[in-house]
Amino acid sequence: MPRILDGDASPRTKTNFSHRALADAIISNPRATHLELSKLFGYSPTWISTVTNSDAFRVYLEERKAEIVDPVMRLTIEDRYRAMACRSVEVLMEKLHAPASVISDELALKAAALGATVLKTAAPVPVAPPESSIDRLADRLVALQQGMQGVTFRRTDVIDASPA
Fold it and tell me: How far apart are CA 64 and CA 62, in angstroms?
């Protein structure tokens, strides 16, 4: 592997870049900054940002996460959070059954905010999938094609300039 010098003149080894390598680096360290990733792969942080924000990479990253993260472990974590949320609601309800004079204003306001949040998310609004750059390009090409309908192109004569 080629050796690279950082700004501090300390040599380091450049990692070969691929979407898989970048995705694995992000999955193994989700808090890695673009600067850290750029040092790992030997590219600028701007270039890393461009790659990580591309539609193709984001789709690949989600697929890679699904391959790596154990579904059983994911369900176990979700079950634990669900159980924690249910227990928290039970404790909150016990506290709210006390006389109103005993319940602090802060607790009452937070319970009201939590209830409003749950009610608002209970009926999810359908969200349109994010529009990819390919979709936008296709729409632009269709619009261009429709704008060209009815246009007549003149036929030009072609002159053969090859030696006889």
Answer: 5
Give the 3-state secondary structure of residue 46: helix
Contacts of 121 (CB under 8 A, 6+ apart): none
CA distance 57 to 22: 9
- Residue 98, amino acid: A
- Residue-wise pLDDT tens digits, 40-81: 999 999 999 999 999 999 999 988 888 776 666 666 777 888
Residue 76 CB contacts under 8 Å (≥ 6 apart), including other chains: none
Q: State if pTM tops 0.70.
A: no
State how far the Cα of 68 lies from the Cα of 144, in Å rounded to an integer. Answer: 43
What is the amino acid identity at position 2?
P
Q: How far is CA 74 from CA 30, 80, 86, 108, 151, in A?
A: 16, 10, 18, 33, 57
Q: Give domain limits for the chain.
A: 3-66, 70-121
Query: How far apart are the C-alpha atoms of 40 and 119, rounded to whole Å?
Result: 45
